[in-house]
Amino acid sequence: MASDPDSNRQRMKQLLGKPGNGKCADCGAADPEWASYTLGVFVCHSCSALHRNIAQISKVKSLLLDPWSSSQVEFMDSAGNNAVKAKYEQLVPAFYYQPTYKDCMLLREQWIRAKYEREEFLCVAKQEPYSAGYREGFLWKRGRDNGQYLSRKFILSEREGVLKYFNKHDAREPKAIMKINSVNATFQPTKIGTAHGLQITYLKDNSTRNIFVYHEDGKEMVDWFNAIRAARFHYLQVAFPGASISDLLPKLTRNYIKEGYMQKTGPKHTEGFKKRWFTMDDRRLMYFKDPLDAYARGEVFIGSKENSYTVLAGLPSSIQGYHWQFGITIVTPDRKFLFACETEEDQKSWIAAFQTVINKPMLPQEYAVEAYFKHKP
Question: Which part of the chain is the Arf-GAP domain (predicted)?
Answer without folding.
Answer: 9-131
